[in-house]
Amino acid sequence: MNVGERVLGVKVAKTYPPRGNTQLLHLEAVTSFACSRCARTKKARLVAVRNKRLLCNGCYGRLEASALQEEQAPTPHDEELAQVVVEELDSGLPYSVINTGFTVEWKFYVRAEHLLHGTCPVPTAMADRAAPQEPLDLTFLRGRYRIKELDRQKGIRLDTGGTEPLLTGLKWQPFVLPGTRVSVRWDTWRQLRLSYTPLDSPVVFGGTVVRYAHDPRIMTRELAAFDARVDRVEELVLITLRELGYLDEKGRALLPRQALVRNTVERAQPERPPRKKIDGAIQRLLSRGLLAWQEGSVNRAGMLHYPARGGERTVPLLCYAPALREANREDLRHAEPEVAYSQAAHRVAGHLMRIGHLGKEASAEARAAYRDDHQRAGLAGPHELPRGFTYVREHERGF
Predict the structure, then answer these.
(1) Neighbours of 248 (CB within 10 A)
(2) Sign of the torsion angle spanned by Cα atoms 151, 155, 160, 161
(3) Distance between CA atoms of 87 and 247, rounded to whole angstroms?
């Protein structure tokens, strides 16, 4: 196929060299399709075409790996390593779906887009049974043994007009992070229940307090722009590595140095730093232990794997590993509180709200309000709103 042709109604933005009867394509937009090999519904820009059948890029990589099992390839060139392909994460679609006829249950991992738009993915089993025009009631719960109600919301709608069915109109709690696992139960024609599973002990993951069961890969990817605390070029390097690198189950992000440098230059806005500055930033991050070297491999299609696979070309990879430790009292004191909402009228104290992981920035009004309240309270330290947060002034909530 060629650039500009259409697959699944979407234009092809880039093509990779054909491998026998299979070719990997990069589409202009994310689209949903069923993989003919693993039979799973995928949502991605990368899709492979094999004898007019569609493959996800994961299955494409596995086919390439098996074809090369006995072949030892030479060391790849710098230009090849700068163009490696990384398998994309799933897009938060429902999994472990159970439909008994009376209830529909499923799980999913919250993504930044769910938090940003107030949505929740649903399986077709619910979409087929629910009446889209009828509003639904929803309850948020926490716990495994002692269940606690966090919030109740009304007027939730089912939207079946997009690529995937969604619940719309949700208001996620401030402490919910991208990567949080949610279990959903829908008693047919009755209330929805969304449950978070608390960890035995809260942890600090890459500088962020995490209270609930989660996927470290999604947190590494979608919290990347929030908790970097280094100079500008080092920050660009870390964000690029976390947002584009290969992710393992521990949330480690890995990329060849050549790909990291190229993508850091291309993504930097408004001014692109010289490559020498990026090389210097990488060296400083290595010397401080924020990055480390690991060994991975690349197959003939340029698909990156970690750990290295037999028969593939081994390559050195720069690795970001999120710092993980048990949260202490000081961490929890500064984290988003777990608020049990009620309908009774009450005062809500002024507080910070995390928005960096949603790709948002605080408004000028919020920054001014924080500066004013911080100074009036006589608090020590800078009066400027921390990056990645907005400020909500004291107000009344409830009836």
Answers:
(1) 19
(2) negative
(3) 9
Which candidate, 109, 119, 121, places its Cα nearest to that of 213? 109
pTM: 0.67
pLDDT of residue 387: 66
| Amino acid symbol at 284 | R
Interatomic CA distance for residues 256 and 58, integer angstroms: 19
Per-position DSSP letters for 252-292, written without gaps between them: -EEE-HHHHHHHHHHH--SSPPPHHHHHHHHHHHHHTTSSE
Judged on CB neighbours under 10 Å (0-12, 13-18, 19+), 226 is buried
Q: What is the mean pLDDT of the chain?
A: 82
pLDDT tens digit string along 48-101? 998 788 888 888 887 776 665 434 444 456 677 888 888 777 767 899 999 988
**Token pair of 303 as six digits:** 């698909």
The pLDDT value given to residue 348: 43
Burial class (CB in 10 A: 0-12, 13-18, 19+), 364: exposed
